[in-house]
Amino acid sequence: MTQGPALTPEERAAAQGVGAEAVRRYLAEHAKAHPAPGAISCNEDTTEGASSHSRLALCIGELGIGNTTAAAALIAALTGSPAALVTGKGTGLAPDGVNLKAQAIEKALAANSELVRGRDPAHVLEAVGGLELAAMVGAYLEAGRWRMPIVVDGFVSGAAALVALHFHPPLAAFLFWSHQSDEKGASVLLQAVATKAKEIDVPYFPPPLMMSLRLGEGTGALLALPLLRSACAIMREMVTMDSMVEGKKECRGIDSETGSNQDKKELGPK
């Protein structure tokens, strides 16, 4: 990418297709294992009945070496930030190595200045992205099409999510950020995401975990998933203050089937 675009348009599109197909395959396998009356096939060109997939959560992470460089380049290109502000030590670079990494990113952005100038997500991804990043972008977009909640892992998968948001800003409504990575550019990334959410009037919830994680591989997303499940359980099952005062075991929450507010439901004897 320091010499020119990292990907051709065809390579970028094909990689996004791989990610999208992985999501469709996951949904199809789940539907086969847990058939529901009137279920819609994921191979059909429709999102009718997509709410049936809203009870599934997709955790997106990655495994790679050197891809924090491409991730930082994507964030720099889409936010206009200097490379030095978003470049971290990755798997453990010394300060001199981090400086060389930032210089390589600046060189890549300069070599692809025509592509990145307009901040078009497809062009930026082709200029300084990678196949795994493009595949994650495709997975995010496909999962959003099916209205699935998506738990974002760390710095690299977060950079892919930012690209996906530039493709389709309403995706912000389905993204849950698991943790703030220990990578230097994580705060810039999350601020950009918060800004995107605000632009379309979608709530942005900061990541719940601050654990100096930098492993990737979906680990942060998997750590946060039980917290999200617990939050849903509280909304559905926790007794209300009024019911406690009245001596009743009642709850008011979200119907797990329809997603709508439930009326108070008595859970036990008065």
Automatic annotation (TrEMBL):
Matching Gene3D superfamilies: 3.40.50.10210
A Pfam match: DBI_PRT
Residue ranges of the region described as Disordered: 251-270
Listed InterPro entries: Nict_dMeBzImd_PRibTrfase (IPR003200), Nict_dMeBzImd_PRibTrfase_sf (IPR036087)
Example GO molecular function: nicotinate-nucleotide-dimethylbenzimidazole phosphoribosyltransferase activity
Protein name: Nicotinate-nucleotide--dimethylbenzimidazole phosphoribosyltransferase
Species of the source: Nannochloropsis salina CCMP1776
